[in-house]
Amino acid sequence: MSYETILFDVADGIATITLNRPELLNAFNDQMIEETTHAFKQAGRDDAVRCVLLTGNGRAFSSGQDLADVTARIGSFSISEHLRHGYNRLIATMIGLEKPIIGAINGVAAGAGCGIALAADLRIASDKASFMLAFSKVGLIPDSGVNWLLPRLVGYARAYEMAVTADKIPADKAYEWGIVNRVVPHEQLLETALAWAGPLAAGPTLAYGLTKRIMQKTWDMSLPESLEYEASLQEIAGRSQDNKEGVIAFLQKRAPNFSGK
Ligand code: LHQ
Q1: Ligand 1: which residue has its CA nearest to atom 29?
Q2: Burial track 216-240 (b if 16+ CB lie within 10 A, e otherwise)
């Protein structure tokens, strides 16, 4: 599939997806939702990809739903169908992708754009980035996974505050609240994100993927269920080539050469 609303590039084990409608602050129309979902699926299928980097072109990460596009369709437009066929699939694809996703948040992440940023596993923010639950400004509730993802990161009170005020949370506050892993000067954003992605793409991908799976599932489990789930996934990791290689490399006092298998 060739893309018109995003850029997609694979190099050195890293797939980079760049949201690319900068004149509209990377607002999502249907095509961009579909292309972004397709790109994540493609990254999942390709064994050469072991880490995904998601960023935005221009001064925004994404301003969320393209409001002009939905306004033009009033009358023939069902929000629930739009979500089910669009953002819900995108968020589920990102959460289900068993490879690390790094969000390099280059500017404002608003509305659905904020949900998509939160669906990354790690977030590195430019000092110009901000996070905004713009939904209530247009009389909506948060969607695109925000209600599941954000309270887990920041707790209910802060998540609810962000939802009802729709205030822009600047990068330094987002770091303090635990929304982002690092804040860096804007000019250093991509180089820092790539410096994180490189080692992840050379790491034990299977173990990273299983860790992502279990850390999401244990929220809904009791401790005994979680311990049992750890045992069963550790059985899989323990049979991997990377486990053997990691142990041998340790004993031989050398760096491991992980294959991701
Ligand atoms: C835009 C947008 C945009 C179109 C900037 N759309 N043009 C799900 C299901 C169905 C329906 C509805 O929604 C959803 C989920 C959602 O995502 S709801 C939330 C949708 N997003 C918003 O409400 C955010 C709207 N944008 C803003 O509040 C501001 O643009 C932010 C705070 C993001 C940035 O502000 P500024 O830096 O001051 O930029 P700007 O407002 O001047 O925007 C620049 C241009 O981009 C401007 O166009 P123009 O022709 O005047 O240069 C905006 O109209 C356009 N734009 N966001 N979402």
Answers
A1: 63
A2: eeeeeeeeeeeeeeeeebeeebeeb
User: Structure pTM?
Assistant: 0.97
Per the listing, tokens 């600047």 go with 170
Residue 45 tokens read as 């299928």
* CA separation, residue 39 to residues 7, 16, 84 (Å): 9, 9, 18
Q: What is the pLDDT of residue 86?
A: 98
Q: Residue ranges per domain, the chain?
A: 6-201, 205-251
Query: Is 227 touching ligand 1 by the criterion CB < 6 Å?
Result: no
pLDDT by residue (tens digit) across 144-201? 999 999 999 999 999 999 999 999 999 999 999 999 999 999 999 999 999 999 999 9
CA of 257 to the centre of ligand 1 (A): 45
The confidence score (pLDDT) of residue 1 equals 82
The structural architecture, per CATH, of the domain 205-251 is Orthogonal Bundle (1.10)
- Among 28, 57, 63, 118, the mutation site with the greatest number of ligand 1 atoms within 8 A of its Cβ is 63
Query: Tens of pLDDT along 107-127?
Result: 999 999 999 999 999 999 999
Q: Is the CB of 26 under 6 A from ligand 1?
A: no
Fold of the 6-201 domain: 2-enoyl-CoA Hydratase; Chain A, domain 1 (3.90.226)
